[in-house]
Amino acid sequence: MPYELYYWDGLQGRGEFVRLALEEAGAEYMDVARQSDGTAAMMKLLKSKSAPYIPFAPPFLKDGDLIVSHVANILFYLGPKLDLAPEDEPLRFIANGLQLTITDFVAEVHDTHHPLSTNLYFEDQKEAAKQRSADFIEHRIPKFMGYFERVLEQNPDGKKHAVGNRLSYVDLSLFQIIEGLHYAFPRATKRFGERYPALTALHDAVENRANIKKYLASDRRLDFNESGVFRHYPELDQDA
Amino acid sequence: MPYELYYWDGLQGRGEFVRLALEEAGAEYMDVARQSDGTAAMMKLLKSKSAPYIPFAPPFLKDGDLIVSHVANILFYLGPKLDLAPEDEPLRFIANGLQLTITDFVAEVHDTHHPLSTNLYFEDQKEAAKQRSADFIEHRIPKFMGYFERVLEQNPDGKKHAVGNRLSYVDLSLFQIIEGLHYAFPRATKRFGERYPALTALHDAVENRANIKKYLASDRRLDFNESGVFRHYPELDQDA
């Protein structure tokens, strides 16, 4: 039975981290909300007053009867099945720790455009968003990207991968956040390649993998847009 | 060899979710930063330019050579060892999903007092903090707590526990966020017991477990304070 991925239609968002893993592995999956009535089916499940262990929010993955929620949890679950996790058991907890740092970074990216409330429009919190974005560009991008660059540099198996000596879902997720940063903050990331050479090499290597390349060129890969996590609002971007 | 927990001294913070599990299980552990030179040892590790797989931030747990970072990851790792995880393998991913929803909630609690930047003092973002807190009280507390109440109500093994039919680390973490909410927002949580009866019963049951009771009365349990995640700033609280 194919995996069923439940996530909002019309944007990459957090679901994209799961899609990249499924696509790299060539796994069979159904992107439920992109089927007709798919979003209704998703909402029905989320609002169920009787189903056990309902998720809090998308994305979640259905594998038979089991529903796994949260990106890092889905990838922890799928990683070994898709051959995208370290074989070594302890290293799987290292991979999960890195993925959770990516999760935190993604939440901070979201908060650059929604610092006060997800219930207010961007226009209604623009001043706070400018302040938060300036701080994000000055402090948080260097802190997180400097950290991931060190992780690559200090990987005992070489700096081509985040964990161990082969591709894992963490590498795919790093590709995605670098891609997103360039979309959302083109000015702030102008010197990204020179500042973070190992991350840039990883990004380029992932982009050129056969299955990823095919996926990125397909219509299953939506463009970044202003409904997703990474949004390009020129007034929030600045040189760095 | 005892587990080594690395976390800031002087506050409960995110480390407290791990402490509660270790204490409930009666596990041997060392709270490293509370030893002399402990914080220096922690910083040395975080700043290492050569160690493999360094964590991004505390808390992290050292078990022999392995360093596990992020609360949910630490608990996923420790759960089975401390007999605080479901025995059923698929249910462990359910527990992890719930714990990650708790993680998201804790990040939102933090952002009530620091909506613009962790690098600015509370005083310098108080107006934004008031807006974010009002939204948090009106929308986010009911959304998250309503969700967890449903999880208990819809647990096929009964509403005493979040997952399965026995205590897990998720129950302990739910206790901690309820405790923290009451500390930070006494006005907003005045009717908590009536609105969320199953959660309140769970909180009280955890509080009365022998090991937890002993721990809460010990000097290892620090009081909530305004350095932690849950902070009581009266100007951010309001009736709900």
UniProtKB/TrEMBL annotation, chains A, B:
One of its GO terms (biological process) is glutathione metabolic process. Residues 1-86 form the GST N-terminal domain. InterPro entries: Glutathione-S-Trfase_C-like, Glutathione-S-Trfase_C_sf, Glutathione_S-Trfase_N, GST_C, GST_superfamily, Thioredoxin-like_sf. Keywords: Transferase. One of its GO terms (molecular function) is glutathione transferase activity. Residues 92-236 form the GST C-terminal domain. PANTHER family: GLUTATHIONE S-TRANSFERASE. This is Glutathione S-transferase. The lineage of its organism: Bacteria, Pseudomonadati, Pseudomonadota, Alphaproteobacteria, Hyphomicrobiales.
